[in-house]
Amino acid sequence: MKTIKIAYSPRPQQRELHNALNKYRFAVCCMHRRGGKTVFSINHLIKLALTSQKKNFRGAFFSPTRVQSKLIAADYLKEFSRAVPGIKYNETELRMDYPTGGRVQLFGAENPDAARGQYFDFVVCDEYAQMDSRMFAEIIRPAIADRLGSCLFIGTPQGMNSFYDLFEEAKSLPEWYTCTFKASETKLVPQEELDSAKKLMTEDQYMQEFECSWTANLQGAIYGKIISKMEDDKKISHYPYDPGYPVDVYFDLGISDQTAILFTQQIGRALFIIDCYNDSNKSLDFYADYIKKKQYNIRNYVFPHDVEQRELSTGHTRKEYAFSMGMRPIKVCPKLPIEDGVHAGQILLAKTYIDRSNCKPFLDAMKWYHRKWLDKQRVFSKPVHDHSSHYADAFRTCAIAIRDLDLDENRRLEKFAQGTDYNPLNTRN
Q1: CA distances in angstroms from 280 to 32, 284, 390, listed in the order given
Q2: N or C: which end of the chain has fewer CB within 10 A?
């Protein structure tokens, strides 16, 4: 193929990253807002689609949502590919086909199943901090395995979530490259613009968005500060299942959406979250079998109010179906406003201990669960419905149940025996 000149001139930081991706199989890049992440990523994919020695190269670009891919990345893909003769763009599939046989396709991470069954040679995960932490392990890693594909994770920090964990882990791995580009160092954003942003943003907001701070709290985070204090107080550590106490199981039910499950134990005034699980497009009998395999001493199965909805196809409620699957006894939480449940959750979380190893997906979700700031109304929105919502809703079920339902008639005696100053850290490994 003849030489093709694309209207893209990489900046020094972008050139550094391009060179690194030629040497390393995986890269994690933390970059400030307006640093040119998407432009860089799309152009790297285009170059590989045109020059890769792999037959029928396949590149993938994942945004947190398909809408984001369509509104932002698609325009860049079309703009920078325009100089290539013989290109074909599929609007429905957000896909550009090149005359070399190469292809670049855009995806939304909220629907990972759309990428299942495909192979990829190079994958970009843009704004990885906003994605489900399972994306790489369950979807991307298998898709690049047979052709020894590569992957770039790029984005702005959103607190110490799965993106932070990946960044820290990558530092010690030989096939991985890490880099951080702060606005004060890159000089890509004019100083007067940064000064203006400082006046309009909180210090946490500015440090997160422009100086790539991992420790600044996510704007609108509902449980972020509580979890940070829990970390400081060593309440997120090793708290495994204790066979001497029963387990309560809390659900957030999904049909076409995800179902999230929490396994908890109550000891005195403290709640221990010892395990968690979530999946999608599975029936109640699947979850019943999964719970049985845990061999926990189950005391209660606690569901949100929609478990009592009757299915048109069967005429039975999901509660009746769960009961027939051996989930018993069943407790049902009343239908309450979301804010009531969130408030109950904030109170309960301060009394909670979490097993870090078994509950990482739950922790990631709770750190991310947040409200959006609405500029026109000058208020925060209701909690955003995304990948974090399911675990947050399961915890909300837990908080309401513990506050409003009689889960254990012997609990008052147990509390009395333990005393009001009971400290579980002194009694558990």
Answers
A1: 34, 11, 11
A2: C
Each domain of the chain, given as residue ranges in start order, spans: 12-211, 228-426
- Please give the Cα distance from 189 to 186 (Å, whole number): 8
- Tell me the CATH number for domain 228-426: 3.30.420.280
Provide mean pLDDT across the span 35-49. Answer: 93
Q: How far is 252 from 266, CA to CA, in rounded Å?
A: 20
Q: What is the pLDDT of residues 139-170, one digit of tens each?
A: 889 999 999 999 999 999 887 778 888 898 89
The CATH class given to the 12-211 domain equals alpha beta
Please state, as a whole number, how many other Cβ atoms lie within 10 Å of the Cβ of residue 297. 13
pLDDT for residue 412: 43
In the chain, the amino acid numbered 183 is A
167 near 178, Cβ under 8 Å? yes
Contact between residue 103 and residue 97 where contact means Cβ atoms under 8 Å apart: yes
Q: Check: CB of residue 279 under 8 Å from CB of residue 259.
A: yes
Q: Among 47-51, 133-137, 149-153, 212-216, which is the least confidently predicted range?
A: 212-216
For the record, the structure tokens of 113 come out as 């199943």
Answer for the pair 26, 175: CB distance below 8 angstroms, yes or no.
Answer: yes
Q: Using the predicted structure, report yes or no on whether residue 429 has a pLDDT greater than 70.
A: no
> What are the residue ranges of helices labelled H in 83-202?
134, 141-145, 162-170, 183-186, 191-200
| pTM beyond cutoff 0.90 | no
| The length of the chain, given as a count of residues | 429
Nearest partner of 305 among 278, 336, 328, 329, judged by Cα: 336
Q: Which pLDDT score, from 0 to 100, does residue 256 have? A: 64
Tokens for 54? 């792999």
- Other CB atoms within 10 Å distance of the CB of residue 169: 12
CA-atom Rg of the chain in angstroms: 24
Calpha distance 138→353 (Å, rounded): 28
